[in-house]
């Protein structure tokens, strides 16, 4: 017992160091790889007053760009209004449409905080629980992907950016529907990696990449980017495909959160696969 | 003592606010992440106990983590730095030891000494931080490059900071 006490006393600094270090790193890894835990993040209140303060200042610098971008988007959407189309044959247009039903609704939000220079980047949006946001919803900008909702508080949403290590969004080539996963290598915020394309597939620079729409986050065929380069890696069955995102994630000012109206139904029926496998 | 305590608490708050409000939003490259908050750890008194120092580093790091979505990584790097700092200070100490009135700042110890001391401490801090952030050895060169570039920019702002917000400790 005395020896133990002497031992502890001699190494007490090191023991304190190891204990605190394991708390810190344990927190980091459990949060990065298993995000289910409730702990601490910038969706909480004190932080947001600071972020809001900063955003109140910086917002003005981007007003012009934001307006231009919204105007462009408005005119694009206006072009698609029903009133703009001349009816060719009066009987063909049906007003109460029962063939299509809406599956996705979009909720607009301002981006109040964002990073690009971490390994796992996040966006903070200025809407939250009160506006019907839930964890796991997809987030897009007007011409590309932004990320997936990671944490929600009453008034704020933390979004795991597509500039993250384990983002793994299903994407596909538009031309032949070959699908794979989107990843990020941590270096260039304008490009991502399209993994899972085998060597026998023909992938050319310039091919369009869109979402596959398989995990309830995003609708099908939402634009992601174009293939920048595709090369074979010696001794590996998969090609290394680099895609260039359509949107610039560093200057993004607003985003849309996608609410998938049939998400629960899809998850419920897909759960049957797990149960089937367990039996 | 109360005076020192006042200076440290002002620096504590100012540096955290500067890190969150200004430096966390300077995003001009994926290679550069400017960290100015370690200046607080650098400025702590020479004769601070190791365990006390580690406690301060850990809590300070956690606060920064809380505000920048890194979940414990800043705390981990700060803790490491505070664990190694006393040994490092001993290693680079002048012949007749440190004057207990002084603190490790440019104003008190001079440019050369501060830059030498700060770049060693910051390199350890940054390298540890980015190593665990990437957590893969295939990116080692990138991690080194990012540490060095971030360190360079961080040091630059730390030097400016000290001229703006710190006075020499010795009143002659």
Number of helices of chain B: 7
N- to C-terminal separation of chain B?
18 Å
Question: So what's the oligomer here?
Answer: heterodimer
Radius of gyration of chain B over all CA atoms, rounded: 16 Å
- Say how many strands of chain B there are: 0
- Most extensive protein-chain contact, per-chain counts: A-B, 40 and 37 residues
Look at the structure and give the mean pLDDT of chain A: 82
* Radius of gyration of chain A from CA coordinates: 23 Å
In which range does the helix fraction of chain B lie?
A: 55-70%
DSSP strand (E) fraction of chain B? under 5%
Main sheet characteristics of chain B: none
Low-confidence runs of chain B:
none
Helix fraction of chain A, binned, reads: 25-40%
Unreliable segments of 5+ consecutive residues of chain A: none
> In terms of structural class, how would the helical and strand content of chain B be classed?
mainly alpha
Question: If you had to describe this structure to a student in words, what would you say it looks like?
Answer:
The complex is a heterodimer of chains A (279) and B (172). Helices cover 28% and strands 27% of the residues of chain A. With 279 residues, chain A is an alpha+beta fold. In chain A, the strands form two sheets. Chain A has a six-stranded antiparallel β-barrel. In chain A, strands 6-7-8-11-10-9 form a six-stranded antiparallel barrel. The longest helix of chain A is centred in the N-terminal third of the chain and has 22 residues, at 12-33. Chain B has helices at 2-22, 38-43, 50-68, 73-91, 106-109, 111-134, 140-165. The relative contact order of chain B is 0.15. In chain B, 69% of the residues lie in helices and 0% in strands. With 172 residues, chain B is an all-alpha fold. The interface between A and B is large, with 40 and 37 residues.
């Amino acid at each position: 017992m005395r020896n133990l006490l002497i031992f502890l006393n001699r190494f007490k600094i090191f023991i304190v160091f190891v204990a605190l270090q394991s708390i810190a790193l344990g927190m980091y890894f459990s949060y990065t790889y298993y995000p289910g835990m409730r702990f601490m993040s910038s969706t909480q209140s004190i932080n947001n007053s600071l972020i809001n303060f900063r955003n109140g200042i910086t917002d003005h610098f981007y007003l012009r760009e934001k307006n231009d971008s919204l105007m462009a988007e408005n005119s694009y959407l206006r072009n698609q209004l029903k009133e703009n189309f001349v009816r060719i044959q009066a009987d063909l247009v049906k007003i109460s449409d029962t063939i299509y039903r809406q599956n996705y609704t979009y909720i607009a939000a301002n981006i109040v905080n964002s990073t690009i220079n971490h390994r796992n980047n996040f966006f903070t949006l200025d809407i939250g629980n009160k506006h019907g946001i839930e964890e796991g919803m997809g987030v897009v900008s007007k011409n590309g992907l932004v990320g997936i909702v990671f944490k929600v508080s009453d008034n704020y949403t933390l979004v795991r950016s597509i500039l993250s290590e384990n983002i793994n969004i299903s994407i596909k080539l538009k031309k032949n529907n070959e699908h794979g996963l989107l990843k990020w290598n941590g270096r260039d915020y304008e490009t991502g990696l399209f993994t899972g394309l085998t060597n026998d597939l023909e992938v050319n620079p310039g091919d369009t990449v869109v979402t596959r729409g398989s995990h309830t986050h995003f609708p099908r065929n939402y634009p992601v980017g174009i293939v920048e380069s595709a090369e074979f890696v010696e001794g590996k069955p998969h090609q290394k495909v680099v895609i260039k995102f359509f949107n610039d994630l560093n200057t993004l000012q607003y985003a849309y959160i996608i609410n998938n109206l049939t998400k629960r139904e899809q998850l419920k029926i897909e759960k049957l696969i797990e149960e089937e496998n367990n039996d | 003592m109360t005076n020192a305590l006042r200076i440290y608490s002002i620096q504590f708050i100012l540096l955290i606010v500067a890190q969150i409000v200004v430096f966390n939003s300077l995003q001009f490259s994926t290679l550069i992440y400017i960290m100015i908050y370690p200046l607080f750890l650098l400025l702590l008194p020479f004769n601070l106990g190791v365990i006390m120092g580690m406690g301060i580093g850990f809590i300070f790091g956690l606060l920064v983590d809380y505000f920048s979505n890194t979940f414990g990584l800043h705390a981990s790097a700060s803790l490491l730095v505070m664990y190694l700092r006393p040994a490092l200070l001993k290693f680079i100490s002048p012949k007749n030891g440190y004057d207990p009135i002084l603190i490790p700042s440019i104003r008190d110890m001079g440019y050369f000494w501060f830059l030498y001391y700060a770049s060693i401490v910051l390199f350890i801090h940054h390298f540890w931080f980015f190593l665990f952030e990437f957590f893969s050895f295939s990116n080692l060169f990138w991690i080194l490059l990012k540490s060095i570039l971030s360190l360079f920019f961080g040091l630059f702002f730390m030097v400016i900071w000290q001229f703006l917000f710190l006075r020499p400790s010795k009143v002659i």
